[in-house]
Amino acid sequence: MTNRLRDLRGELGWSQADLAAKLEISRQSVNAIETGKYDPSLPLAFRIAKLFRKKIEDIFSE
Amino acid sequence: MNFATCERIPAARQQEVRNLRKWLAVATAVFLPLNSLGVVRPMHGATGIILAALAGVGFVSMIALGFTILLRTSDEFRRTMLIRSVLWATGITLGLVAIYGYVDLLHPEALPRIPLLVIPVSFIFVLTAAKLLVFRQHRIDA
Question: Contacts of residue B76 in chain A, CB cutoff 8 Å?
Fold first, then answer.
């Protein structure tokens, strides 16, 4: 699964730590998701989508 | 600490997990020396029973605290890594015990007799190593 998390975060000028704080997860989690080492659960994917005001499929794709 | 409150406040939940980890360290500090003492120098009578009970309480506490830490870890990625470490440690320990058991069954004289109490201690060490490896792989502070 691929995702646009790094791009979206970059557009807003957020660091991984900033995004982690907003999602209430660890910075390592953000890094693992961005690098494709870890696929987030559906609730976390919804939180990410809500934070960026996008649909899940606009951020995550196969 | 109120679990319901912690559900809504991740910072409080993180603090709770930190406290649980401290208690896990205490339980390990109680269990390991007593268990090792039981292996190296078995005791009998009332002293032996008390020491065995303390070691038993220590070990059961370790399992309960470890399980609670897993449940209370709010970061799902960290929780996944913890579960992966436990699975690796369980697999390695059980594998080694099974191999040792089969060799002992087929060639009873080939291996020295080892007390069963060595198994939980081995599991703790293998779990520590597995955790370090898994967490280092993803650059997480263990």
Answer: 25, 29, 40-41, 44
Q: Among all residues of chain B, which has the CA nearest to that of A36?
A: B138
Residue of B nearest to A32 (CA): B138
What tokens appear for B125 in the block?
Answer: 């060490």
Instruction: Report how far residue B102's alpha carbon sits from residue B107's, in angstroms, rounded to the nearest whole number.
Output: 8
> Which amino acid would we find at residue B135?
F
Give the DSSP per-residue string, B57-90: HHHHHHHHHHHHHHHH---HHHHHHHHHHHHHHH
Contacts of A9 by beta carbon, 8 Å cutoff, 6+ apart: A15, A16, A18, A19, A30, A34
Tell me what ipTM this predicted complex has.
Answer: 0.80
From A60's Cα to the closest Cα of chain B, the distance in A is 17
pTM of the predicted protein model = 0.75
Q: Answer yes or no: do A31 and B139 touch at CB < 8 A.
A: yes
- Report residue B4 as tokens: 């319901």
Could you tell me the mean pLDDT of each successive run of 10 residues in chain B, 142 residues long? 50 82 86 74 78 82 89 88 94 95 89 83 91 82 56
